[in-house]
Amino acid sequence: MDITIFNTLDTLYKKAADTFVELSEKSIQKHGKFTVALSGGSSPKVIFSLLATPEYAGKIDWSKVYFFWVDERWVSLDDEKSNFKMTLHTLLDKVPVNKDQVFPMYKDGIEPEEYAKEYETQLRNVLGEQGIFDFILLGMGDDGHTASLFPGEAVLHEKEKWVAAYYLKSQEMFRITLTEPIINNAENILIITFGTSKKHALNEVLNGEYNPELYPLQLIEKKEGVQIFTDEEAGA
Prior knowledge:
Blueprint: E1 2-6, H1 9-31, E2 34-38, H2 42-51, H3 54-57, E3 65-69, E4 71-73, H4 83-92, H5 112-127, E5 135-139, E6 163-168, E7 173-178, H6 180-184, E8 189-192, H7 199-207, E9 226-231, H8 232-235
Parallel strand pairs: 1-9, 2-3, 2-5, 5-8, 8-9
Antiparallel strand pairs: 4-7, 6-7
């Protein structure tokens, strides 16, 4: 695991965009496609906006990128809380992606648990039975959660399913999420977390006793290909 502490968020975001470009080139050269799972939130929003600029967009063969999501609130695709909607407006509508290679983590007229099974089928069709993403973008909440792997939830112990849906009582809504096994299978994982509010959880994740029930980001293996981008406030 590599940890990089940036002086400014601008340099952090640019390095994240550079990383996306570099990994896309390597993956497409290696096996003809680039499979990614994206996160929502303010940091990915800035990164996606950067990737849509001429400086970056022209460096990526978008026709060979397959887009999945790390997690999603169980809301319609046009809801303001939808990670898909944010990605659509900041990136997907602005670059020449193949719409057949975009897999939103929501579908009308189906229960979330059923769609979790359907989503896993879509993953297997693209990734194969080994389930290896080329790139996964993660964040970390103030409580140490990542994806929709929240402290104390049963989903933290999932070892078989690649995708799980459950009702998150604290938010009074269903969430759908990739699980620990499929996330840790990825070739490359980039975790972005910064700010004073993240300092305690990040320190516990990296240096504290192993307790993923309390700090779920600890589920992510500290292996080659895993990077953390942070700032001086959180990374101190």
